[in-house]
Amino acid sequence: MNETHVGIGPLSPDDVVSVARAGAPVVLSPEVLDEIGRSRKVIEDLADDAKPHYGVSTGFGALATRHIPAESRVRLQRSLVRSHAAGSGPEVEPEVVRALMLLRLRTLATGRTGVRPETAQAYADLLNAGITPVVHEYGSLGCSGDLAPLAHCALAVMGEGEVRDGSGVLRPAGEALAAAGLAPVVLREKEGLALINGTDGMLGMLVLAAHDLRRLLATADVTAAMSVEAQLGTDAVFAADLQALRPHPGQAASAANLRRVLAGSEIAASHRGPGCDRVQDAYSLRCSPQVHGAARDTLAHAETVADRELAAAVDNPVVTLDGRLESNGNFHGAPVACVLDFLAISVADVASIAERRTDRMLDVARNRGLNAFLADDPGVDSGHMIAQYTQAAVVSELKRLAAPASVDSIPSSAMQEDHVSMGWAAGRKLRRAVDGLTRVIAVELLTAARALDLRAPLAPAPATAAVLAGLRGEVEGPGPDRYLAPEIEAAVAYVASGRALAAAEAVTGRLN
């Protein structure tokens, strides 16, 4: 597995995914450690200054007016981490925690935080040992950054709190560190603050969600194409010259995918010509590129924001390039929170149109000659009737998850932190939304595949036929009613793993 080199420059989204999900090892170069050491000297030179310096010789937040004597500053940093590790609720997924730790390490590597080289190295060591601090669902307001989640990670570096070891076993942090041959870190001036004051949790969730949505949106184009075929829809509306009349890049990319996936379809060809009475298809078929395209353009904007954040050094105060220690507001999560919410809206919209395409295939009044609910013996069999119920329930939940978190704010820290971003909450609900979209697309695929089988002897396009064949390796074709839940889960796994998209791309080449 390739190493991920954490340097002064930005990480790539692929680096984040590789470390978070695949456990890629992390390396800090000697040059990075030297830069961290140079900025640390700024902090050490200020330690004996009579002038107060936030995070070095003062308390925190609303307690920043309290001067802390030198003999209490190690306790100050330790107390900060312990008190801020105040999360509650279920454990957050390990991939999110690993992404959070990597992104905090990247900011430490810029040399703008003033930590010691050994403290930065401790984060790399924890990641490489596969030790994942236990972080909880609730605790972050997204400003000053993701305080509680990051504090739980800093607590683990100190040898306190709970972690999951490389085998996923829940253990006391000190015990897990000792088993991995790692020593706890005793935090010095400013280090506790530097470890908890960033937007790393919400950014990690944004990067992971964007990675998944790239695949899901391309898969949604594939399932839309399958639905168009299954419902004897027309592919003429996806023509490039028609799409160019409204030059949104996402729309053009989606329409191009639909054209490539539908190429060579006997089903589409069967009703093309003067005898065809399909002048216009329903919006859920005809407008698929417009809806999927809007989501793609939203995703492109979100990825731009993520790229900017991946190049940022988020801390307060920061050590400037010319050696000053300055307070700032860069820890505020608003830029990330807004696009997390924006993506949740697009996810709900893509899922909504997919559900409408699915419902049309089941309605005998609209599915152009197929059995009601695609049932083998309608009345005795219910076919995919309740699969659509499940899909509709998910879509309804996605609409609730589309309500923005970033418009909310609850003042904290005795009104010192009086406007917060709620970006962590926006990230948490986007993760649920991505899972929901995966399930909605999977039900559309399962239903469209059944409908395409029922169109035999007409053959689907080579690309959609390949997707159907891959599904049939795990799920049987049409017949009397069977236990449906396992088939839905098999389709979910087929979509989530990327295998459904890969089956189409084996015919079409890489889709947009």
From TrEMBL:
Family annotation (InterPro entries): Aromatic_Lyase (IPR001106), Fumarase/histidase_N (IPR024083), HutH (IPR005921), L-Aspartase-like (IPR008948), Phe/His_NH3-lyase_AS (IPR022313)
Catalytic activity: L-histidine = trans-urocanate + NH4(+)
Listed Pfam families: Lyase_aromatic
Protein's name in the database: Histidine ammonia-lyase
Cross-referenced CDD domains: PAL-HAL (cd00332)
Claim: Electron transport is one of the keywords in the record: no
EC number from the UniProt entry: 4.3.1.3
Location in the cell: Cytoplasm
Main localization, broad class: cytoplasm
UniProt pathway: Amino-acid degradation; L-histidine degradation into L-glutamate; N-formimidoyl-L-glutamate from L-histidine: step 1/3
Entry keyword set: Histidine metabolism, Lyase
EC primary class: lyase
NCBIfam families, per database record: hutH, PRK09367.1
Species, as recorded: Yinghuangia aomiensis
Entry keyword annotation includes Lyase: yes
